[in-house]
Design a protein that fits this description.
Elements: H1 3-19, H2 21-58, H3 64-84, E1 94-96, H4 102-115, E2 122-126, E3 131-137, E4 145-152, H5 153-158, H6 161-173, H7 177-200, H8 206-225, H9 227-245, H10 247-274, H11 286-292, H12 299-311, H13 323-330, H14 352-366, H15 368-390, H16 397-410, H17 417-426, H18 431-440, H19 446-459, H20 464-476, H21 486-511, E5 519-521, H22 526-538, E6 544-550, E7 561-566, H23 572-585, E8 592-596, H24 603-609, E9 615-616
Helix pairs in contact: 1-2, 1-8, 2-3, 3-8, 4-6, 6-9, 6-10, 7-8, 9-10, 10-12, 10-13, 15-16, 16-17, 17-18, 18-19, 19-20, 20-21
């Protein structure tokens, strides 16, 4: 099923649910029953075949085709039993008990009584900024379920008690009453089918292939038909939270989670990893988080994070609705709230410090090797910055920009405007210098930002998408004392659309066959090449790598690259995923397409067209 067909089926399910909710649910139940009927039917057929063939063999009426029939029946029987008994992994985290955290369990029991939910079989504490309740099949698809709550330690640190209770009530709301049990059963069924599909995809016998074919047809349609049910369930869980703790508290919790979640991803973790510049051994983050998550986010950051959250639309990529739709359904207003002043850590009682220390130690163990590599990388960056600073009197514009870029890696809060201005003195319309200079301007200096973005638009076709995107974002942001400029916003939106079309053409050029047309040797400096080689060395499956620069007709001055890697002893599916990961992580000064040596291009074609390898793994043997 392609994406368009999936979206079409989702829209049909939403329409059916809106027209007649009960009829829609009956249809979902019937389609779920079809999956069970397939499995049970296969089980009955396989059992019948085995029961018929075995006596024939025992009584000497042997035929060659009977052996093949028996093997096929046993394969079908095994696949059917696996479907009925598929097991899911237990939640990750630390199990906590009522004796250790009595206040938390008292609160959960009060919530359970109010929503008429089933009991929880276990409560876990983990290190994620999240909370979730899930039902996992106890006996595969045959029935029974285990209810587990997983509560993230950072979430307890970020929210006060009323807002955390709103989150817990929402999660418990998924298990409420008959409708909740039906939605949970559908969720468990979908989870089981997905796990079965993943398991069967690795089997190669004939009867598993038959079940795979059915699952390939059935699973995406089951997901599409049940999408509206899952989306409804989210809204209903929100309404339950709103009734129990108040719509204002529930909405404030949603907004605070969005803003502080963005702060964690965009601010905290980057700053924490940058401490590796001076700390050779990893530092646990959770003790620091305990204090920082209760500080009010910087006002400009909070406004922008909320704006971006409200701009996200509810689409078929996630059954969770967007913040705007959730707040509207609750009847609340998605505005910046008064931030939580006291955390909900008190719900964990006297054990909270012990658990914080536990997760700090665990984080340090899990990230020891990554921290060591990051410490070494920041050391190389620092040495390069010192070398550039020592020769600044003769810097070109490119060197001033490089120095500023590397300093941002060490300290994103550093004042870099003077470095970009020095670069612009060397070359008044230097695109990278203009881009960096615009980023140093104050948020409320709209006039200067738009003027800088206009200069960048005029100076470089390669940077037009970035310039237009930044201008649209600026003009869409409401700032005190600045009037809305509809004409400018319309102009920049049209420019962004035009630039997006150019970016799409450039990407198609990069992927265009033959791969070795319009390529030259790479143009990386020694420092840039050293970073790429260090990153490839950390990727153990790569035994050799090649890198060439690709000339693009769409953007003649853009630095774009093709990287080729030799990945023996891996499946094509794993190779594909690894290449996509390398595209996201390699420190190259431009976009890159990563390909592996296989049917196209072959290893011989890479040897002929990609010049010498930039990375040979020590002791590697070519295949």
């Amino acid at each position: 099923m392609d994406q368009a067909e999936f979206v079409h089926l989702v829209r049909l399910s939403e329409q059916a649910s809106a027209d007649d909710s009960r009829r829609y649910r009956r249809g979902v139940a019937a389609f779920a029953a079809l999956g069970y009927a397939w499995v049970v039917g296969c089980l009955v057929l396989a059992t019948g075949l085995v029961a018929w063939v075995v006596p024939q063999l025992l009584h000497g009426r042997f035929r060659g085709w009977m052996l093949w029939l028996l093997l096929a029946a046993l394969g079908l029987l095994w696949a059917s039993l696996r479907a009925l008994w598929v097991r899911l992994d237990a939640p990750e985290g630390l199990v906590i008990t009522a004796r250790e955290a009595p206040a938390l369990f008292d609160a959960l029991e009060r919530i359970r009584n109010k929503v008429h939910g089933p009991p929880l079989h276990a409560v876990y504490l983990d290190e994620e900024f999240n909370a979730s309740i899930r039902q996992t099949p106890r006996w595969g698809l045959l029935g029974g379920a285990t209810n587990t709550l997983t509560l993230g330690l950072p979430l307890l640190m970020a929210l006060d008690r009323p807002r955390l209770l709103a989150v817990l009530t929402h999660e418990y709301g998924h298990l409420r009453g008959d409708h909740g049990r039906f939605a949970a059963w559908i969720y468990r069924t979908r989870l089981s089918w997905t796990r079965l599909h993943d398991a069967l995809s690795r089997d190669e016998n004939v009867m598993s292939f038959a079940t795979q074919a059915f699952m390939n047809w059935y699973l995406p349609r089951f997901a599409a038909k049940t999408f509206a049910l899952a989306r409804q369930d989210e809204y209903e869980a929100d309404r339950i939270a709103g009734r129990l703790v108040g719509a204002e508290v529930a909405t404030a919790a949603l907004v605070e989670i969005e803003v502080k979640g963005a702060w964690l991803q965009q601010k905290f973790w980057g700053d924490h990893w940058r401490t590796a510049a001076t700390a050779a051994l990893p530092v646990g983050p959770f003790q620091a988080l305990r204090a920082q998550l209760l500080l009010a986010p910087e006002a400009a950051f909070a406004r922008e994070a909320l704006r971006q959250a409200l701009a996200r639309v509810s689409d078929v990529a996630d059954t969770h609705p967007g913040l705007r739709d959730r707040a509207a359904a609750l009847g609340g207003q998605a505005v910046l709230p008064e931030w939580s002043r006291r955390s909900a850590l008190a719900l964990l009682g006297d054990e909270a410090p012990r658990w914080i220390a536990h997760f700090d130690k665990q984080w340090c163990r899990d990230n020891a090797s990554g921290w060591k590599r990051h410490h070494a990388w920041l050391g190389r960056v620092s040495e390069r910055v010192q070398g550039l600073a020592a020769s600044s009197a003769t810097h070109s514009a490119d060197q001033w920009v490089e120095q500023a870029t590397l300093l941002r890696q060490l300290n994103p809060h550093a004042d870099l405007r003077s470095l970009y201005e020095m670069a612009l003195q060397r070359s008044a319309e230097h695109p990278a210098a203009l881009q960096g200079w615009v980023q140093t301007l104050a948020d409320d200096d709209r006039v200067a930002r738009l003027q800088g973005l206009q200069r960048l638009w005029d100076a470089s076709g390669e940077h037009r998408w970035w310039a237009a995107s930044q201008a649209v974002e600026e003009l869409e942001t409401t700032r005190p004392g600045l009037a809305h400029d509809a004409a400018a916003l319309k102009l920049w939106r049209e420019r962004r659309k035009q630039a997006q079309e150019g970016e799409a053409r450039a990407w198609e050029e990069l992927r265009q066959l033959p791969y070795f047309g319009q390529v030259t040797r790479h143009d990386l400096s020694d420092f840039e090449l050293g970073e790429v080689q260090a990153e490839l060395a950390l990727c153990k499956p790569v035994v050799r790598g090649w890198l060439v620069r690709k000339a693009l007709r769409e953007f003649p001055r853009r630095r774009a690259y093709l990287a080729f890697v030799e990945l023996p002893r891996m499946s094509d599916e794993d190779r594909f995923e690894l290449c996509r990961w390398l595209e996201r992580t390699l420190s190259l000064p431009g976009q890159v397409l990563v390909l592996w040596a296989g049917e196209s291009p072959t290893l011989d074609e890479i040897r002929r067209g990609a010049f010498e390898p930039v990375y040979p793994q020590v002791g590697a043997q070519s295949n």
